[in-house]
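Purpose: get a first structural picture of the assembly so the mutagenesis plan has something to point at.
Setup: two entries, given in the order below. No constraints added.
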Amino acid sequence: MNTPANLKYTKSDEWFDPASGAMGLSDYAQSQLSDIVFVEILVDEGDTVEAGKAIASVESVKASAEIYASAGGKISAVNKGLSDKPETLNSDPYGEGWMVKVEGGSTGDVMDSAAYEKYCEERAH
Amino acid sequence: MTYIPISPKERDVMLQTIGVKSLDDLFDAIPVKHRFPKLDLPPALTEMEAMDELSGLAQTNENVRSDLISFLGAGMYNHYIPSVVDHMLRRGEFYTAYTPYQPEISQGTLQGIFEYQSLMCALTGMDVSNASHYDGATATAEAVSLAYAQFRGKRKKVVISPTVHPQYRAVIRTYVQGMELELAGDNANADLDSQPDELTSLIDDNTSLVIVQYPDFFGRVYDYTKLIEAAHAKGALVCVVANPTALAMFKTPGSMGADIVVGDGQPLGIPMWYGGPSVGFFTTRKNFVHKMAGRLVGETVDNRGQRAYVLTLTAREQHIKRERATSNICTNQGLIALGTAVYLSLLGKRGLRQVAELCYQKAHYAAAQLSKIDGMGLCFTEPFFHEFALCVNRPVEEVNAHLLEHGIIGGYDLGQDYPALKDHMLVAVTEMNSKEDIDTLVEVLSEVSHD
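Result (structure tokens, whole complex):
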């Protein structure tokens, strides 16, 4: 399991990068979902989102999941190429798999990487 | 599948578990005097007597196979159904109202649906078809749901041509209740002579879907390419409601650029019965497949490398996506969809085209003869397929009553849906109508005009 130390994590398995304002789905989440075949970003550039509100919808071969904003703020960028390459979420969840970026992101209830790793391990048992 | 009833022992365990002594205790809430009300029924009949009575009742029915000539269409058509269709449907492996989807035990059913989907795509010129909906009207309403979901509810307007089947439009109105959608163009008093391109003025940046019918409700055939381009320029999707028989001889909606093509499969080997059950086909482009409602069967290989069929992209369906799914309907018309697949396989590309051409030629012969009658005439001048609006210059109800006395079911009374078309009937002609049938219709209608 990959949990970069520079990111913050939510209990619903999203990550947030305080430096760039980017957010997405954690490595743990993508491995749980298995092969992701569809992603739809539910917000547009310029929208304002609150932490915890749905920003994307993801379907894998076995499940469907909503992805929630790990931080609130004004959407400054949307990864438009993602819907054509949903498998990116499996191969590079913290890089090319970013979903949206927010400006002035205020995080809700988030964990650092150590706490998140522990949280994932607990759920595995 | 084996049906295994519970044993008395199992029943007792179940009763014990929920804490009641007997089955009767479960009905405690119903007052005793209402449990077994006395029904005023006639004495029981023997099987022989019952058969006698039922056959007597059945014989009072009149049907288009032996008793009546029909010129009634308006969405449901009298076509010849090869006996193989019924033979296949009555096979025990298929003859169930419930579609079993488990790939381990249902390869035949799944293959049937896969072939149905492939045939529908070939017919409409589209990429992907679902396993079907209830009928043409519900399939059209599902197109509204797809477009609504595609724009995530942000585009609130649906433009509907007034020449889409009035009952389909009514079903759409029912489906969208509570969705706060604006339905534009859905107006029975609209100018029915206006060209489809004129709908363009109603399409704006808030429009999710434009719906047109092909041929339209009055049988007229238009090329919707320009309208579709105009809709796409505004970012809207276009749904074409098509008659599948017509698709054998006219340009496909897919080649006009349609995003969704739906319709009723009844003309493809399904009897008219009493107006149903039928089957609705739903086809779309690959990029909308995740927003498509209904089941979808795909072809794959099993763990032994053999060709196999399985439900595909199920994560988009409502049992997984719940309230976030496009639609709450996953029911397909498995048995009837299979009937259309058998019909199409049997006729083939050339056979279906032959049926379409017969309908077309006979309808044009009928239209030419009928328009010669004094005081009658065709309502529109556009090219048409196998249906046309005829002005009969007196109440259609009256005309049809007279026709029925001569063993003819007349056309659909257009005045009931379109006030401007009072005293007009929609006449449908198929390969089932012989030249003699058509000449008889002309003769009887000539008498009417002289009354």
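Chain A has one domain: 9-105.
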